[in-house]
Amino acid sequence: MIKNAIIIILVLVFVAIVVFLDVPGVQNVLTSRKDIEIQKQRFLDTQELEGKIEKLVSSYEGNKDVVEKTTYILPDNEDLPNLIVQLEALAFEQGLLLEKIEFAAVNQDAVGGGEEGSTASTQNYQTITITLKLMGSYPALKNFLKETEENMRLMDVSSINFSTSSGETPEIFEFDLRLNTYYQ
């Protein structure tokens, strides 16, 4: 029995000596385990972010037509040729004669866009003013305005002036319209 007790004591002393003499090694093992757990958590977080990114990319791909429509509503540039064709087609469809069309860029500083701290200075778009001279009937103008409102490209009517034409038909008017349209 004494032999067993001595063997147990010697084993415990040996273990104590190994542990106390190799404390830095044990601490390294413990910190390495903590680092491994931290890296595992980072890996899981990265995988979760990759999953979210994949979902966003697939959602974007699924809504690509909506993004293209948005680009058409607020194009990247003035796109004046397309604008002329649109307005001419709208006028023709409604039975109006498009006599004149003029374009003018709006100075954003004059609108208040140049002031620091104003909400207009954070606008990410430019404005073009379009002046149209049309001839036709009043119902045709109403339909033209309705179609302009429902048109894909964003346009706002800022003023309308009309007068009777100097012809024999009193129901034909001359219309001067001022529209604003926007681009990025």
UniProtKB/TrEMBL annotation:
<dbReference type="GO" id="GO:0043683">
    <property type="term" value="P:type IV pilus assembly"/>
</dbReference>
<dbReference type="GO" id="GO:0043107">
    <property type="term" value="P:type IV pilus-dependent motility"/>
</dbReference>
<protein>
    <recommendedName>
        <fullName>Type 4a pilus biogenesis protein PilO</fullName>
    </recommendedName>
</protein>
<dbReference type="InterPro" id="IPR014717">
    <property type="entry name" value="Transl_elong_EF1B/ribsomal_bS6"/>
</dbReference>
<dbReference type="InterPro" id="IPR007445">
    <property type="entry name" value="PilO"/>
</dbReference>
<dbReference type="Pfam" id="PF04350">
    <property type="entry name" value="PilO"/>
</dbReference>
